[in-house]
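Hi there, hope your week has been kind to you so far. Do you reckon you could talk me through the fold, stretch by stretch? I've dropped the whole record in just underneath, so have a look:
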Amino acid sequence: MQCPYDGGHLVDAKSFNSHVSSCRVAFSGPLIQCKFNARHWIPMPEVAYHSKMCADRQLYLMIEATLQCEPVPLQRETEMVDVDGAGDEADATAPAAPPVTASDETHMLESH
């Protein structure tokens, strides 16, 4: 079998897994983000295999079929938001504030 990391490596089937593991560690090429799970970073030679075998593939495809469009990633807490929707420069750089709960409001009233 041919190693996906180095085409010059021909390996027998019995030792293929251990060989690929050692070549993966030595690999210095680009990592590609998985379409089905953003926490998966795959070495370029394994992208086609991972895309077929990813454990999150079925869930992603089910959501995509239900929504009739690609899922939109959620906004992270550290991202900046446009506070009033006006799209002006001042709001676009303001950090997102955490939501105020009823207990927070009660505490604020009692402290004044």
Summary: The mean pLDDT is 76.
